[in-house]
Amino acid sequence: MVALNMTSEAVGIDSESLLFAKLQEHKFEIPNLISRRLYNDRRKITSSLCNTIRERMAKEIDGDEDCFCIDSKPIEVCRFSRSKHCSMGKKNFEKAPSIGYCASQGVYYYGYKLHAVRGLSGVIHSFDLTKASVHDIHYLK
């Protein structure tokens, strides 16, 4: 179960329907394949185990680096002109999207910012989603 889940993520299959469509092509080679519903239930149960395995794999791949890079990417929720009408997060201020500026594209946007911390070897150590108005320097604090 864990191997099937991690292999599907590694090859870029992020949809259960796509995964099971691909597996049906090989149904004679995998005679005891579980159902899609059982796969989904067991995947949820084993999610913490998968995260532990991912963390150990990342630690083995990247070694013990002490230099890291941080980068961010804008995640637009809706068009800037529609931001006043967006009801997402209005009840919880900490989780609400905000207005941010993307310097590489030279535009303002309404949404979130995805921050990723990676080692020099390219392995992502951590990532986080913040309001769009949070600058990378402030995120590091």
TrEMBL record:
UniProt GO molecular function: DNA binding; transposase activity
Pfam assignment, any one: DDE_Tnp_1
Domain Transposase IS4-like span(s) in chain numbering: 64-141
GO biological process: DNA transposition
Highest taxon of the lineage: Bacteria
Name of this protein: Transposase IS4-like domain-containing protein
Species annotation: Parabacteroides merdae
